[in-house]
Amino acid sequence: MFPFEYHIPTKIMFGERKINQLGEVAATFGKKAMLVTYDEQFVKSVGFYAKAVQALNDKHVEVLPFFGVKSNPTVELIREGVKLAKTEKPDVLIAVGGGSVMDTVKALALGACTDADVWDIATGAAQATGALPIVTVVTIPATSSEMNCTSVISNDALKRKEGFVNPLMYPKVSILDPELTYSLPIKQTAISAADIVSHLMEGYINHNDPWTPMQDRFAQGMIKTVLDCMDRLLKNPNDPQARATMMWVATFAWNGFYVCGIGPFDAPIHMVGHSFSAFYDTPHGSAMSVSIPGVMKFHLKERIEKYSIFAKEVFGIAGDINEKTAQAGIDALVGWFKKIGVPTTFAEAQMPTNELDAMADDILVTAAHWGIKTYTKEMVLRLLQLCL
Amino acid sequence: MFPFEYHIPTKIMFGERKINQLGEVAATFGKKAMLVTYDEQFVKSVGFYAKAVQALNDKHVEVLPFFGVKSNPTVELIREGVKLAKTEKPDVLIAVGGGSVMDTVKALALGACTDADVWDIATGAAQATGALPIVTVVTIPATSSEMNCTSVISNDALKRKEGFVNPLMYPKVSILDPELTYSLPIKQTAISAADIVSHLMEGYINHNDPWTPMQDRFAQGMIKTVLDCMDRLLKNPNDPQARATMMWVATFAWNGFYVCGIGPFDAPIHMVGHSFSAFYDTPHGSAMSVSIPGVMKFHLKERIEKYSIFAKEVFGIAGDINEKTAQAGIDALVGWFKKIGVPTTFAEAQMPTNELDAMADDILVTAAHWGIKTYTKEMVLRLLQLCL
User: Fold this and answer.
1) B50 in contact with A, Cβ within 8 Å
2) Domains of chain B by range and CATH?
3) Which of A14, A18, A260 sits opposite B261 (nearest CB)?
């Protein structure tokens, strides 16, 4: 095991109708809340916006709404939010949504406390100096953003997607109310499931510590649980137990817990997948279900043992530790992606293949930002070929 | 899944030689640290005391030593510590030791901030009003005390052992330096392993939620990892990987994470085992390895499915879901306890059997304090018979 620090100050409030406690949570920070969420018409149609506003009104917290967050949230919108926050000076920022809304709020929380541009903070060109307090109400369980200090935002002008980390961005409180996810379409649920699996795979298959039974079993068990949840949800999208379990799995999949002690690892799944979204606005989870098989195939020869154990433990595949078993693990995962209806190739994701060279360059920019030194352009191009 | 709140503000610093950072950690709280640990002669012989003092001196933190904590720490000693703390007014309390030292410091932290007696706080007769900041340096991985807000202390005069919970008792920082555990005798390591397993079993086998795959797999995976660690340590007690892994498993076994969402559950393993220690000063882990099989046998008929899955998942026992497989799971666990050298019966623990009636009464006092209503005296006596 490698040395690490683990410190997640976020308080989780989990359970059906917990959204009703949003008002008392917000009131501990002040009297004015900036509520950040998706398109106004959409959120008013699905009901959670009204619930959030009601809970805030009940505790006499003034609501400053900020609508319009989209999948792969943009720095352009965040800059508008920063402007509004600087003018209106809310006491707390509330994200009501999934990863894109939470990541928007995180960047906004930093941006509101500095004169630097948010994109410069995301790229590391400028330093954050403080943050407004953040509360999240999760409506799409997928990214762990509710319990980590990571934000991933896009810059449409630059065609870049940037992930960055800052302990100031830990939410103070995250409300996980599974009831809010019952109405999530199964298609989007499947994309989220792929995202959760990508988090559990990223550290698990890419770390290089030869003996980490606690962390590996955690990842395996969590992936199996996502499989179980999706089996139930494909039959009944309103299954409360599966919705609740998926929500809690999502939170601990990428909050920094299971990667404790496994040492430094490359994150090729996200490194590659981010560019899919940057280029074609592919939903994050769909980008992941394309990049995971590509990355696994690319590294197959050097990871026979790990993939074989993955095949046996997660998919119950019989067989020895050898290339055949390892390949069967990849095939089983691809089969599962197909079963839940997420793309596993460029073709299935309807992504064109005429910009692979530019995409490889973009991937290498991400690699450089993340300190990943393993991949040359030739390697990235070969990896992309395995994703087609 | 059931509603829950999860909030562990403790910062973990994990890695070999992390104890050297104790000074800078303590200095963030002030210039005077009360260092609570075991018998003076003992701690000065094993080396970690000198390391702790050195690290504190390096950062000009004054050290106020408080020696003498024993296994099953007593309120009598804690009262002395409270007196000292009230006179000397340290800025931070540092526990250097295992569960008994950490639990002593937790009670002391509350006691130093109130006029009420510590035992009254433990029993709930008085309310805590504040706490001195707590830092722990773990030398025996077992109790999760380094990352929870529980303290278990004994009252020799009353022959009672009392566990109590207060969020004020979360350590601010816990330093997990596996190197400090290399010299832990294998006998004591095995007792600690039994303690860790007792934590992982308590919620897992006693909860009543029919579908909690995430939590159940976590418990199973963690127990298997304890088994793996002990296999390695029985061969080589200095195995750094096994020591490090055991330390991290111990921390997450009873910090409140895996029981999130499984709903209310009785804690008969600890309810019963606490009285073994209260009556005969049996080391906590040894009390657990006696109480676990007794509790499992007592509930066998109504937990066929759960024990069968336990047998299959943890011990790889083939078989259907039936009483035979369930019993095989209990037998395998007892076999493992014997293999690592911890007692599994009153006889093996050298506990007399002439006070069972009084012990049953004591167990029922604990049950009442913990809100456990399942067990009558007749049931407790029957359960104790299964432990003989």
Assistant:
1) no
2) 11-180 (3.40.50.1970), 186-385 (1.20.1090.10)
3) A14
